Amino acid sequence: METEIVSEFLPFGRIYKDGRVERLTGTEIIPPSLDATNDVVSKDVVYSTEHNLSVRLFLPHNNNNNKKLPLLIYIHGGAWIIESPFSPLYHNHVAELAKSANCLAVSVQYRRAPEHPIPAAYEDSWSAIEWIFSHAGGSGPEEWINEHAYFERVFIGGDSAGANMSHHMAMRAGREKLEPRIKGVVIIHPAFWGTDPVDELDVQDAETRRGIAQVWEEIASPNSVNGTDDPLFNVVGSGSDFSGLGCEKVLVAVAGKDVFVRQGLGYAEKLKKSGWGGDVEVVVEEEEGHVFHLQNPDSESALRFLDRFVEFITDGSNGDDDFVNVL
Hints:
8 helices; single chain; nine-stranded mixed sheet; three-stranded antiparallel sheet; alpha/beta
């Protein structure tokens, strides 16, 4: 096995001379289970035979079979490089969301860099959404979605790189007039960046800015013509028009000690001024860092954020009013 390292992108991984990629974190896998662990059952379903990609479905075990549930499509983070729907971090998080919001959750696997540079992850995420929406009429290939998903209340959410992609999926949904329309999008600690700070409170340190830029330009998206100012990454500082965002409401979550905090706040302000016309809510945890709710899910602030995420899906009804009888 080749041992000569040609590129090291800590803390994520290394590339060896023979092209092998070694990921240093986010590689552990939890299998799905039809046992009602934590009151949720889960299973994996292939949505792309071409790329051998799956979604992991999470269904509350106590769901009444005569009811349909809100549908959450979740796109995981990890700098487009690490993690998956099957890792403990995301399996546990999305299972808890499904339980707490009493919703059917679909966690999306996508091809990751550096083996599959951007835009592969975006293309896969959209393919997954199209596959999920093929069930809107009740005759798709996956029975759980046919039987349990209420397509009048579809939500897309993600953190970090997944938050970035959630925004772009909502934009594409608007452009392609995806029906039924997405109800809401949850943007958590979004990985948006650019060559220049978005304001005077954004990260000014040149080394920090260069380090984040290098992950995008050298590992995640080496084919970007504009580098860090690719509109996929520079969402806030670019001239991107948000007015066509294809959903009714957006929840933006930021953390005060996160390098992306000003980007997240700038995103919310840009969206409010875009002429889009939907509802924007911002949730701030001043004393927390990037994806704190995943790193320490039992903390007071993480539980507070979970409650807000759930309320966004249920409109404060604990899911009861979102059910639709199927008789």
